[in-house]
Description:
Blueprint: H1 2-16, H2 20-35, H3 38-42, E1 45-47, H4 59-67, E2 71-79, E3 82-87, E4 94-96, E5 102-104, E6 111-112, E7 119-121, E8 126-128, E9 133-134, H5 140-144, E10 152-156, E11 162-163, E12 177-180, E13 184-185
Parallel strand pairs: 1-2, 1-7, 7-10, 8-11, 10-12
Antiparallel strand pairs: 2-3, 3-6, 4-5, 8-9, 12-13
Amino acid sequence: MFEKKILRREFLDKRAAVPIDERDRISHELIKKFLAMTIYHEAKVIMAYASTPDELQLDELFAACFADGKLLAIPLITGKGEMQAVEVPSFDALEVGAFNILTVKRELRRFIEPAQIDCVIVPGAAFDVSGGRLGLGGGYYDRFLPRAVNAMKIALAYDFQLVETLPIEPHDAKIDAVLTIKRGVCNEVH
């Protein structure tokens, strides 16, 4: 547990040090790659996260989902360690919520059952080639992802976030693929 905290801090500090223009360029390249993937074209329901300033920016993905008629969902924290998927009908439906993170306006919230989701874009501090994920420490995705039984779980990540191995515990939810600039879809992940 202590090792995970130290690693998480190292990766988050490294992520925060990426200059904004570089973050935006890499975000654009990764989203372009993701939009060309079969999973994107076949998915009807995509769940992504509302990016914080240090994370890869997903607004371009949101715009593509709206333009392509995909049902887009983002997480909504509903309790300690618990979240649900809530539909995002448009950019206009979003407002700044808790922790300065975008959320869907209360009066527009419509929840999506996790089993309806075809693809989840998963955030994290780091990922490994076996599908291991070092999250942000709250356990929200570790509890949610097992309920998204039909979804392909994909991380869009900086190259430095993909490592050979991470200290993973039995309760840590795995992901299916990691997409980086240099490695493309990391085929080692299954």
